[in-house]
Amino acid sequence: MKTADVWKEELKKAAKPEKIAVFQKFFKTGKGEYGEGDIFIGLAVPDNRKIAKTKWECGIDVLDEMISSEVHEHRLSALLCLVEKYRKLKKDRNACEELIKFYLDHAKNANNWDLVDLSATYTIGEWCVENSDFSLLYRFSESANLWEQKIAIVATATAIRKGIFYPTITIAEKYLSHPHELIHKATGWMLREVGKRDIKALRDFLDKHSHEMPRTALRYAIERMDEAERKHYLASKTKKNSEKAEK
Questions:
Q1: Per DSSP, what are the bridge partners of residue 39?
Q2: What one-character DSSP code corresponds to residue 71?
Q3: How far apart (Å, rounded) are the C-alpha atoms in residues 168 and 154?
Q4: 56-91 burial string, b = 16+ CB within 10 Å, else e?
Q5: What is the CA radius of gyration of the chain?
Q6: How distant is the alpha carbon of residue 215 from its chain centre?
Q7: By three-state DSSP, how is residue 150 classified?
Q8: Beta bridge partners of residue 71, listed in sequence order
Q9: N or C: which end of the chain has fewer CB within 10 A?
Q10: What is the distance between the alpha carbons of residues 58 and 46, in angstroms, rounded to a whole number?
Q11: Does pTM surpass 0.85?
Q12: How many CB atoms lie within 10 A of CB 168?
């Protein structure tokens, strides 16, 4: 059997088919939803990660086959393996560059929120910080693809952990009028992470933009603030909306 076939068989054995219906609902696979038509085998993330880590020495061709699968957990396993490969090979710049190219070439296959959240920060986010170059993220933020847009904001988490906030702020400003709730949630989440490390940076952003932020993004961003501040920023948005309605 090919390496990819053995890998898929291991994932299948660890899966619990009774969870398929739950996953299909949780990841919005219904008609017209963002995960429409996605296929699941019922495998939990910890079990998937355990198997993926054992495959880190596989070739790019094997990763390509896994991430191109129609099965959600196969694609996730490829990305979890990619994260492990990047961690193991971090001192080898050429190897890491190849892995980042692979990620960029296959980013559209990371087509649900868990696939992005469990991979982007630990690969492309790391690469951008290590090279002090966030142009890849800015490029993805301009993409027409929802998942590339989500990668752009989520991958800034690595920079945030290093005390670098401008990539998050820059992309969050681009997303102020974004129509999709997944982006609202991701943007608010990253802004909240900024606030954990520098509350002034978050306040500065909110003082400038809270009135025009999508409500979901705003609620996520202010979640860890005290009640008085939360009410202040929510009231700012409500007041602005009322003024618009009166005009």
A1: 71
A2: B
A3: 9
A4: bebeeebbebbbebebbbbbbbbbbbbbbbbeeeee
A5: 19
A6: 20
A7: helix
A8: 39
A9: C
A10: 20
A11: yes
A12: 26
Q: Of 76, 103, 240, 110, which Cα lies nearest the Cα of 182?
A: 110
Q: Tell me the C-alpha distance between 41 and 23, whole Å.
A: 9
The pLDDT of residue 240: 56
88-131 confidence digits (pLDDT tens): 999 999 999 999 999 999 999 999 999 999 999 999 999 999 99
118 phi/psi in degrees, rounded to 5: -90, 0
Q: Which two tokens stand for residue 69?
A: 């699968």
Question: Please, which pLDDT band fits residue 138 given cuts at 50, 70 and 90?
Answer: very high
**pLDDT of the residue at 47:** 98
**How far, rounded to the nearest angstrom, does the alpha carbon of residue 168 sit from its chain's CA centroid?**
13
Say which residues have a Cβ less than 8 Å from residue 68's Cβ, sequence separation at least 6. 75, 106, 109
pLDDT digits (tens, 9 = 90+) for 197-212: 999 999 999 999 999 9
- Please enumerate in sequence order all residues whose Cβ is within 8 A of that of 218, keeping only pairs 6 or more positions apart, or say none: 188, 206, 210, 233, 234, 237
Q: 50, 39, 46: which is closest to 17 by C-alpha?
A: 39
Place of tokens 């009028």: 177
CA separation for the pair 86, 97 (Å, rounded):
9
Cα–Cα distance for residue pair 140/150, rounded to 1 Å: 8
Phi and psi torsions of 122, nearest 5°: -90, 0
Reduced to 3 states (helix: H, G, I; strand: E, B; else coil), residue 110 is coil
34 contacts 146 by C-beta, under 8 angstroms? yes
